[in-house]
Amino acid sequence: MLLAVKRLALLLFLLAIPAVAQPADWKTKLADSMPLLGHRNWILIVDSAYPLQSSPGVETVETNAGQLEVISAVLDAINHSIQVRPDIFMDAELPFVPDQDAPGVSAYRTAVAGILHSYKIQSLPHEQIIARIADAGKTFHILVLKTTMTIPYTSVFIQLNCKYWSDDAESRLRARMSTAR
Question: Is 163 helix (H, G, I), strand (E, B) or coil?
């Protein structure tokens, strides 16, 4: 009898906890991360072949979502934040990728241009962007949102900047500081 009660108690306990911890939904992860992210942090929206990085500051989340959906959601979250604005980088290789080597790339370029039309985009060779991210990951948090995209050089790299302090204000501050010395 005592053994049956113990087994029943164990069974009820096991049923009360999930067998496998489920990863957080990427939208929830993004929402939870936004208040913590600031100047010099990065959010990357990457294709499915983007490598899992080993720097301690890099966190990768599998979205199982389309690239354009994730880009739109990230920009919406940034635009609704009180503290950050996006500095957007894209691979310089993307305009040169032909449809015969990567079917759908022209349609992607058109669609992503529509989403990013109101932003300034800096274009750099892929390896230069990766080097910046690797360096930043030594000190700052980088959130990598991996998508289902299967076209190369389509990743969107967003370095976060201070929303309430402009680049012009920073330049004026530095000029005042240098004249005061």
Answer: coil
